[in-house]
Amino acid sequence: MMQRPEGDRLARVLDYWAAKAPDHKAVCYFDSAICYAELQDLSTTAARSLLALGVGRGDRVGVLLGNRPEWIVMSMATSYIGAILVPLNTWYKAYELRWTLGHCGISVLVSADRFLKTDYRALLTAIVPEIENAGTTAIASPEFPHLKSVFFLGEAHGRYRSWMDFLDLAHDVSREDFLLVVNAATGDDTAFILYTSGSTADPKGVMLNGKGVVANGFDLGAARTITSDDLVWLGSPLFYGLGATNAVPATFTRGATLVLQGHFDATMAIDVIERTGSTVYYGTGNMTRAILDDPGFSLARVGTLQKGNAGTVAEYKRMTLVEMGVTGAVPAYGLTESYGNATVGCPDDPLDIKLGTSGRPLPGMEMRIVDPQTGKDLPQGETGLVLLRGYTTPGYFDNPEETAKALRPDGFFDTGDLGCLDGEGRFIFHSRLKEVIKSGGINVSPVEIEQLIAAHPDVRDAYVVGVGHPVKGELVVAFVDPSARLSEDDIQSYVKERAASFKVPQHVFFRSEASLPRLASGKVAKFRLAEEARRELGLNIV
């Protein structure tokens, strides 16, 4: 059995493996590889650069990057000095970026110059015009007073500062001063703020501390039987919990190798898995479907995959375990607030057990199933509200109201999910009590989309619901009360221009306000809308 590495935060885990196996590969990225000693050197350099910029414990550092080594370097750099990494969603449009930059008060931002179809230099300059003329001096933005420096990956470009400019700043901080800061930081410091859509219009910043990331990450890796011999292919974006606080710590606490490919593309994924001989699969259900549907897919090309993440939805689990042949993959259940996963299955469980359950609670994680109305514990087999205690978020950044709703006085976290425990203590997920929609593995806020659609000049009001789907988990469906003639495409295009693509409704129904079903309180009965959409779409799923 593998011993837990010394250290209560990711940077200390990196130190452990850099000393124990300095030449072992830590990260593979296309044709390049970084060993543990090199990752340590790059990360300490980046940490000293942050100190040179005045970043201290508790300060927020943003990364707007795809799945590439610099993201990992920055996560380790902030961990060394007790700063907080804020991974920004690369699918965000201007409004979403502006809101997040302002909400968490990012002081230093490292961004791609371009990623896929987005020019981030142009986008960020439009949001913060002061970036372009700041040069080597601190940015002075009235709208973003915390933001002092922005660096772009890629070639140096005019007045913009580059990644190399950032690393060069390390020379201004001595090793002695650096070590003083490192030794003052602890595992109780917040390590990440991960923004996740919820039942409120604005995203919530989930705070996660370094100690929880490492401890739960090690247990996640153990449950998936990851060892230092494994190559962990990551398809999920690093800015999501499945990447940042699941795959990353599960890999590095076990001394394994993380395989990155920039962004998910099914054809590319098959090639990378085949070429690297990846042994651990970390993809979402929709990624699994895309890989299986790719013309270049064959079991032989991904045959090195032995273990990994099978997910929560039965159909996705079947695709991973059976169609893709990753027979050692395990089902799991969790949320960003539970440091990735709260329950994980056993690799040796029979297929029917894997398909029907999501495993047992991890070490250090308590799970209760209670009556949503009375709060009393329910017996095994009865479905109720899922509460978690242990490795759970201490709260939402600068959001005491939502924190108070989620965290109970006894320390249990209210997941808003419904489920039960079987006779052998395995968790069975049923549905979401909260309104948040889980579409293609991504959390989507109905309120946010409703507000976007309602801003259309020809829309009176809008209501958004999730409708169960056998492949996507849930579909995003909008009910719109128009004031003029509109088509489904009109609404979808309007949302697509203003928000990330996963927020675009897959289906739009037009209904007058008077025809909408209502509760006794006068509020629109959304569960009735979901039932209507299910009938209209021919989806007989509860």
TrEMBL record:
One Pfam family here: AMP-binding
Domain AMP-dependent synthetase/ligase: 15-396
Keyword Ligase: yes
Residue ranges of every copy of the AMP-binding enzyme C-terminal domain listed in the record: 448-523
Gene3D superfamilies associated with the record: 3.30.300.30, N-terminal domain of ligase-like
Record keywords, A-Z: Ligase
Gene Ontology molecular functions: medium-chain fatty acid-CoA ligase activity
One annotated GO biological process: fatty acid metabolic process
UniProt family annotation: Belongs to the ATP-dependent AMP-binding enzyme family.
Name of the protein in its database record: Long-chain fatty acid--CoA ligase
